[in-house]
């Protein structure tokens, strides 16, 4: 065999290994699959080692894989680049697939083919992986029927692709920690994030007021107006809160019993200052990479509680049915225009551009959503 032929075989073997890793197939089963129902070839964003996403990811052509009896082959329509996707590639996220791996964790696709024992799904259906499942940054995904949740095709593509991680986080935090009633209030930092925007809108639907903290930076006035348009009651930059008594800024709003923190550092301290006695702050992120500092007074005299929320942990509790019911509820809100957030659709072949934007290389950008 020529050197060129040997190299070609090595490349094919490498590509097959990527598919085996993602689909859990044995080599013998993969060889047999060439006589059975097969998926189309796929293009995927893969990484063979952990590191900076712009250095370790690359586009790979993958061979067809077998569509087994209980499998569904999905042609992906769109998938976002989330901060947690970046953290998985960097190797710092607590739960991550073994390398080599295909990136992506949520998205929406159209059923392309089904196995002989699949009854609930048909070609043409729109589906999302629910709970989320790794490997959505590829043109065709083959996974068991149980992974996929059929959704209403009337929902806008960009919301269907992004509904599971951020909006679901907002909904769960609103419902899991403090029982709030109409007329109550909450406070949050990171209000311009998608989770923050969803908190504002979901709270408003429940008659709950929101006090929102944003960072001091260019465009903060525009950000404030955008949040107000979503239903935010109060929006403060961090510098505006450099006062002795932040509660004097509340006006007619009641002191909040619940606070959300995704930043850490000083922004977390500001959330704590707003909370009423016996209030609870829930931390779900740490964008500043700075620790949370809590005064002794907050614990002794205000009796504040500090808790954490991680969607992955909640999903691991066997809540598939509940998760899908909430996703349908959120998708209904998005379809009816009651839940909005900004995204930017980027063609798959421009993935490096979208990745640079998601990494913050070109300033603040909307959520990047890859379209296939």
UniProtKB/TrEMBL annotation:
InterPro entries reported in the protein's UniProt record: ADH-like_C (IPR013149), ADH-like_N (IPR013154), ER (IPR020843), GroES-like_sf (IPR011032), Mito_Enoyl-ACP_Reductase (IPR051034), NAD(P)-bd_dom_sf (IPR036291)
Domain (Enoyl reductase (ER)): residue spans on this chain: 51-370
Location of the protein in the cell: Mitochondrion
Biological processes per GO annotation: fatty acid biosynthetic process; fatty acid metabolic process
A GO term, aspect molecular function: enoyl-[acyl-carrier-protein] reductase (NADPH) activity
UniProtKB keywords: Fatty acid biosynthesis, Fatty acid metabolism, Lipid biosynthesis, Lipid metabolism, Mitochondrion, NADP, Oxidoreductase, Transit peptide
Mitochondrion recorded as keyword: yes
Reactions catalysed: a 2,3-saturated acyl-[ACP] + NADP(+) = a (2E)-enoyl-[ACP] + NADPH + H(+)
Broad class of enzyme this protein falls into: oxidoreductase
Domain of life: Eukaryota
Pfam families: ADH_N, ADH_zinc_N
Entry's EC annotation: 1.3.1.104
Stated family: Belongs to the zinc-containing alcohol dehydrogenase family. Quinone oxidoreductase subfamily.
UniProt-recorded name of the protein: Enoyl-[acyl-carrier-protein] reductase, mitochondrial
Species of provenance: Brassica campestris (Field mustard)
């Amino acid at each position: 065999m020529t050197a060129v032929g040997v190299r070609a075989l090595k490349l094919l073997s490498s590509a097959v290994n990527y598919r085996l890793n993602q689909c859990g197939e044995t080599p013998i089963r993969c060889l047999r699959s060439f006589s059975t129902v097969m998926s189309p070839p796929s293009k995927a964003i893969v990484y063979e080692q952990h590191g900076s996403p712009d250095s370790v990811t690359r586009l790979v052509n993958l061979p067809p894989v077998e569509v087994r009896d209980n499998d569904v082959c999905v042609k992906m329509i769109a998938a976002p680049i989330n901060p947690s996707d970046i953290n998985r590639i960097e190797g710092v996220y607590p739960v991550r697939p073994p390398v080599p791996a295909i990136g992506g964790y949520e998205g929406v696709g159209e059923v392309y083919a089904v196995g002989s024992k699949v009854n609930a799904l048909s070609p043409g259906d729109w589906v999302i992986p629910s709970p989320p499942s790794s490997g959505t940054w590829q043109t065709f995904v083959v996974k068991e029927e149980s992974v996929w949740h059929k959704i209403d095709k009337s929902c806008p593509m960009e919301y269907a692709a992004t509904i599971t991680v951020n909006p679901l986080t907002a909904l769960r935090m609103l419902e899991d920690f403090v029982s709030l009633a109409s007329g109550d209030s909450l406070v949050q930092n990171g209000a311009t994030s998608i989770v923050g925007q969803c908190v504002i809108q979901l709270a408003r639907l429940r008659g709950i007021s929101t006090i929102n903290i944003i960072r001091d930076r260019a465009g903060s006035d525009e950000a404030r107006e955008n949040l107000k348009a979503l239903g935010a009651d109060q929006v403060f930059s961090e510098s505006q809160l450099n006062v002795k008594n932040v509660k004097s800024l509340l006006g007619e709003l009641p002191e909040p019993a619940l606070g959300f923190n995704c930043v850490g550092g000083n922004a977390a301290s500001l959330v704590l200052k707003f909370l009423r006695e016996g209030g609870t702050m829930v931390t779900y992120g740490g964008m500043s990479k700075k620790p949370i500092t809590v005064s002794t007074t907050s614990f002794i005299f205000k009796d504040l509680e500090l808790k954490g929320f991680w969607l992955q942990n909640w999903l691991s509790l066997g809540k598939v049915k509940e998760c899908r019911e909430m996703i349908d509820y959120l998708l209904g809100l998005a379809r009816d225009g009651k839940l909005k957030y900004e995204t930017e659709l980027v063609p798959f072949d421009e993935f490096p551009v979208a990745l640079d934007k998601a990494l913050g290389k070109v300033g603040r950008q909307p959520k990047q959503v890859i379209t296939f």
